[in-house]
Amino acid sequence: MARVRSVGKRWWVGAVGLLGLCVAAGAEPAYSQQSVAVRAGLVKGSLPVDDPTAAAWATASVSEFPMSPQVHWPVRITDVTAKSVKVRGLHDGTTVAILLEYSDPSEDPEDAAALEFMVGDTKAHFAHGQPMAQVEGGPVNIWYWKNKDGKGADLGAKGFGTLKPHSHQDVKAKGVYQGGAWKVVFSRPLNTEHVAEDTQFKPGEFASIAFAIWDGKKMDTGQPKEKGSEKAISSWWYFRADAPPDYSPYMYALLAVALAVGFEMVLVRRLKKGS
Amino acid sequence: MGGVLVRPIILTVCIYLFLKFIVPNLPHSAPLPSSLIFLYLMLTTAGIVIFATLSGASKDAFFGPILRFLTGEGGGALSGARYLVLALFPLLVGWQTYGSTASSDAPPGENRTIHPAPPGEYTGLSNPVPKTLENINYGKGLYASRCSPCHGNFDGKGFAAAGFTPPPANFKDPTTIAMLQESYLFWRIKKGGVGLPVEGMPWKTAMPRWEMEMSDEDIWKVIMGEYDGAGQKPRTWDESE
After folding, report:
1. Nearest to A15 among B14, B89, B160 (CB)
2. Considering the domain B120-240 in this protein, what is its CATH number?
């Protein structure tokens, strides 16, 4: 009996030990968190659609995604210049602007970058919306920029070899090369009339996004280092344009607090009466 | 407050801390969803209440201090704690309400099936290529040139793997090729990521459709090289009989 009492008194030692273990476990995260989504914040006033270096970009949250050499399709590449890309987004309720930033040791006319989106609710393969054996896939919408063109291009594809410019060009793009890195801003209205070809953005809802980067450095062969399907790519990640502020959750919370206070008052009153 | 309540409270807190911080750090474990932790705590609470109400005496001993605390009969030093609890409860309810009604910044969850069922014609195929050292080495050579950029040294950490989600499979992991038949690998290599059914989310995977570049015989050889290189054996039905 004495032994049992002795153990009973020491139960709190175990509890403190467990708490210590928890603190130790929580001090160092088990794994690093990488970005999974680009978040385009809602801004008032003009968007920096023509200025990748504008101060407004500093207010946008930044996400970073690793890039891989394109090895999915037979014309492959084994090493690419861009190992990762930083992405920021802003929108003003009518236009969305997305900024890519990545390292490139040299500025070349053939340097290029692209964003890719699914169109509508139909899933599309990240490699140009190529056909899938058991799933009816949809097209992709590609926003393309090449340094020597100095502008954006609005493209569509549904499978390799089907990439072509849309009859309507809704995408703008501008690149600035500074200090061994490209900053390229793409912009487009959040919604267009061409719902079958263009991705449409609904603020607050997640869309799929993928990235591609080409280092256009001229090699001894006279060809760019990266061209066509020889490029740095990512598979699908997420993009969301922030919805306007919604204050209704605060109202619901206040209502819940009032109901809880009322419940407490009734409960205590009845308990007192009962006792 | 009666000492009878202290142990249940400590027990509940300890179980919460264990589920929240210790379980995720156990080998082969993962963080538990908050809904599951909540369920476990509810079960704990229910168990405590059942235990405390087994008899009339234990019921009074358990609920008596609670009632006296809530009505303020205890008075003295506990009155401060009473007001604190009465203030915290509505705040907790409000916080929970806000959390359940505010929009989340988290992307939609993905319940991707990693090893979905193969089409019927690929079920139970046996490797027609003789398992000779020559064939295994030939398969390893093909693996080195075609597969290792993503799958690396059979560990899924090739130089081209970083940008892909889902990540390339780690063949040394006992939950990949060790639990699959050769015929399954034949299907996955031949048809690639785009051959997956909808639950495998084929639109996300970078696995090439190798039937465009390799003969069936070479694919079977790659499979042999893959198992040998990863130090794994294919799952067979014969062994379990």
Report:
1. B14
2. 1.10.760.10
Domain range annotation of chain B? 3-101, 120-240
Give ipTM to 2 decimals: 0.80
Domain of residue A168, residue span: 37-248
- For chain A, the domain total comes to 1
Contact A271 B67 (CB under 8 A): yes
Print pLDDT tens along chain A (275 aa).
Answer: 344 344 444 544 455 555 555 455 444 333 334 689 999 999 998 999 999 999 999 999 999 999 999 999 989 998 999 999 999 999 999 999 999 999 999 999 999 999 999 999 999 999 999 999 999 999 999 999 999 999 999 999 999 899 999 999 999 999 999 999 999 999 999 999 999 999 999 999 999 999 999 999 999 999 999 999 999 999 999 999 999 988 999 999 999 999 999 999 999 888 888 75
CA–CA distance, B218 with B224 (Å, rounded to integer): 10
Q: Check which CATH number belongs to the domain holding A192 and give it.
A: 2.60.40.1190
Contact residues, A window 8-37, toward B, CB-based 8 Å cutoff: 11-12, 15, 18-19, 21-22, 25-26, 30, 36-37
Q: Which two tokens stand for residue B16?
A: 């919460």
